[in-house]
Amino acid sequence: MAVVMLSCEDISISNIYGVTIGFLVLIIDSTFIGLSYVLIFRAVMSLSTTEARLKTFSTCTSHICAILIFYIPIVVSSLIHRFGRNVAPAAHILLANFYLIFPPVLNPIVYAVRTKEIRRRLAKMLLWCRGGLE
Questions:
Q1: Which of 20, 57, 81, 113 would staple 1 via disulfide (CB 3.0–4.6 Å)?
Q2: What are the C-alpha distances in Å from 4 to residues 1, 30, 109?
Q3: Is residue 72's pLDDT more than 80?
């Protein structure tokens, strides 16, 4: 969008088209993801043990977190670039970098926290750091 704004022509049709396509893709993706989770939820509820249900819900929670980590920065960055005329250029650059860096960095963390050994080691490390500050 930064390059498009440099043109001397009216970009309102480009803005409308871009926002429409962006939200259409987001709505279609969200619909299919939601439908998939409804089907997964139905299958999970048919599992015989509570432990299996909890483990499956834990996996689904990690997936939903990963999806949100990916989609939220895309939506915010897109909206700010299209409608944030009073936003400083540095903020646009920061949001673009945030969108490119944040999801790939957090995705492994979301899935790694599910592992008991990693979770235990992380808690030990955080408690050690907190103890060193006191």
A1: 81
A2: 5, 28, 36
A3: yes
How far out from the chain centre does Cα 118 lie? 22
Q: What is the DSSP letter of 4?
A: G
| Euclidean distance between CA atoms 96 and 74, whole angstroms | 9
User: 10-28: string of b/e by CB count within 10 Å (b at 16+)?
Assistant: ebeeebeebeeeeeeeeee
What does the pLDDT read at residue 35? Answer: 93
Q: What share of the chain is helix, strand, coil (3-state, %, to 5)?
A: 85, 0, 15
Is residue 49 scored above 80 in pLDDT?
A: yes
- Mean pLDDT score, 94-123: 79
Residue type, 28: I
The CA distance from 95 to 102, in Å, is 10
